[in-house]
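Q: Trace token order:
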Amino acid sequence: MIRQYDLVETVKKYDPTADEKAINRAYVYSMKAHGSQKRASGDPYFSHPVEVAAILTRYHLDSASIVTALLHDTIEDTDVTLEDIERHFGSEIAKLVDGVTKLSQLEIAGSELKQAENFRKLLLAMSEDLRVLLVKLADRLHNMRTLRHIKKPEKRNQIASETLDIYSPLAERIGMQDLQEELEDLAFEQINPDARSSIIKRLDFLRAAGQSLLPRIIASLKKTIADTGLKADVNGREKTPYSIWQKMQRKDIEFEQLSDIIAFRIVVDDIEQCYQALGAIHGAWRVSPGRFKDYISLPKPNGYRSIHTAVIGPDGHRIEIQIRTREMHKLAENGLAAHWAYKDAGKLANGKGEADTPQYRWLRELLDIMEQAEGPDEFLEHTKLEMFRDQVFCFTPRGDLIALPHGATTVDFAYAVHSEVGDRCVGVKVNGRMVPMQTGLNNGDQVEVITSKAQTPSPDWLRFVATGKARARIRRFIRIQHRDEYRELGRAILDKCFRQENHRLTHKAIRRAVETFHAQDEDDLYIRIGEGRLSGPEVVNRLFPLKIDPAKRTKSRKSAVINKKANGAARTETGISIRGLIPGMAVHYARCCHPLPGERIVGIVTTGKGVTVHTIDCDTLQRFNSMPNHWLDLSWSVDDVAEEMHVARIKVFLSNEPGTLGDLSTIIGKNGGNITNLRIAHRSLDFFEMHVDIHVDDVRHLTDIIAALRASPIITSVERARG
């Protein structure tokens, strides 16, 4: 444990203007506050905040950060209050300590939700002042260094997993490579000790076998650079066990197949010399195809800049080389801490100042995701999508650079430009050519987004978007659509139930129902009914208990359904209009019978799914005979027929002859149908049995298509498919 005098002297060496008195006072104050408290290792608890402060001195942080590190556990683990901190050390320190204080354990079931909520809080604190993140990372690093003292293996694994999931990527995002690598290695040692031990043994063997090789390569690189008249520092850096393990897993290769375990760095004075050194290296040795990356021209999101290349170097060995300036090297090692951006970190929240640079865009994106996500677990899912992927770099028509994760599509690009652009995206041009919305993007693509004010996000986009921001925004729109659909459906259901019992659905009755069922408001009540969590008859029964006979209603409802089947007529005067149906939302069509406009239909209310529309003769309805409260009388409106295409399924037997499938498609197309899916259910030497899904307007349209197919000599039989 570093002593008080040594800590102050260390800070004064790199920052002569540091507040020496504040550091001394914080050291003594924290020591007294923690008193005789012990850590799991048996060491005095006070050793932890002191070691956190010592870690921060490696990165030359200001005295306010050092004071915060010394005090960061006092509020959580002692009797000290935030008011005490502010009174003794001022508002700036109090704000930082409040941001870094251990996050209180929330009463949420499941470690994933707890982790997500803790990360959400940390993100909010980071957005106010990035020094909070720096102190928090140092706090996590010291906890990982002493992780072995925690007795429970499951607790150690949980902390290590959280480190890999949250803290290591955060360190990477602010460019603190050394801290990131140590966090990863400590977590790797806990989670997969056998794999780490195996890799270390192989590295030891390589070091012993190649003791003379490394100096020869460095000497050869130095000579090549010196021959051009440049002065450069050249050294080799071994990859960490965790990064080696990651590459083995990602590429599915063995350790012996890796050829870039050691990366060689060439550090020069300025950018011009970087490219001169690159020319010298490429002139001396053959380049490995596909291994060149210019992060000077296109920096990484965290601000990292360097040229990466790989060549077949001395003695035929393939070597990886990084070329950078001394300033770039300093930033690559220490990231955010290297250029003191934290002095302006408070300006990040309002988008001004030094912190409003591209390397901090990710933080603003995460804050946007937090606003869109429904809960902590969804936020954590979207955050991982946003943070933990390699990048591709694309351009807007004006030349603005947009960084996206590998696998991102044109829709992800639209949302990266702006949330409103994503919501209104109707088409995309990539390199001047119209492409489908799900098209993946590559480095260097120029993307133009075409928008329309009438467009809204499609639920289908969730199948292919890759970024957390796009996924969060689309899900938010779907949730709003769900609520609107459920609310309107619930209002219609309740109104129908009231009219069946000769009551009027008045505001007074609704207010009574809201109070009776402890709903938040009228909308909440309607949504519960629309989702099926509450039935309309149940509401009426509670409001008018003396005027309703549930047994009678059950009998009458069953009779109504039976009469419909027998008489072949659907009542439309009391049926609910089902306009604007959105598949998978509050109201959707059953896939067992594929109902079409013009057919008699009935609805089944299912908890959490809303209403499923069936044809009145669907065999599936027999399952619900004992649940009359789940039945709904439905009818088609005229607008439903005109506005929307519907899927119908037919079963076709056709001759097994050349051209018959083409003839089948031609007949359907000529009659205005569009095949959306086709499956061969059975084949023989003479015939094919096929199930064909067709987009049609209504049941009359389907009847015309079936008639045209039956008239063809290649068709043996065709009928409506069920089930």
